[in-house]
Specification:
Layout (H helix, E strand, L loop, with lengths): L11 H15 L14 H6 L6 H27 L4 H10 L4 H21 L3 H9 L6 H11 L4 H24 L3 H32 L11 H12 L8
Amino acid sequence: MARGTPDGAASADAVADARTALLLLADGRFPAGGHAHSGGAEAAVVDGRIRDAATLADFCRGRLHTQGLVAAALAAAATAGGDLLALDEACDARTPSAALREVSRRLGRQLMRAARTAWPDPALDRLAAARPRGAHQPVVLGATARAAGLGPADAAHAAAYDSAGSPATAVVRLLGLDPFDAAAVLARLAPEIDQVAREAARHAVRAVAEGETALLPAASAPILDIAAQAHAARPVRLFAS
């Protein structure tokens, strides 16, 4: 929902503008650096945990309900007006893997560059100045969504979708998987993506209202954390993560 309208009721034109911004943020062609990352799919392919469309679906589902839920809640909280630096620290606490922390900040830095060009905003400038090496990607995503006139549910949807969409796109290149099969995986996961986004937004709004980041989800995915550390040490990789 676009901001700046009475009681949250936006005009039809404002809603259209916001929805276009959401599509742009979720578009893989938006220059946010995601094309160089597989969301852990490359490590899973190397380990044999992703072999075909069925195992890709299992991987995406697991990532969606763990890292995806956490990222969606952090993004939604940033869009809802939460303290961005506190949320950045909360993301640090929810990312035990040093490799994934580095990746998240690298992606956040790239997204920040694109966001400040597309939607100039003082809050983005302040966050960039406070975190010159990059704030975590979900926090930057939420701040970007707010600058673009989107609401917490929109930011949560973008983050939740990306948690499944990035691995699905990467596996087309990694395994030569039929793109139609990869698209079908995401289509069948759509109800769960919507569910996770709604849950994340609900947690985020409450956390921001109470000023307590501890109320945000802290779901863990130990296999993804361990695999990310191993992947970062591999001398030959197609994707950075």
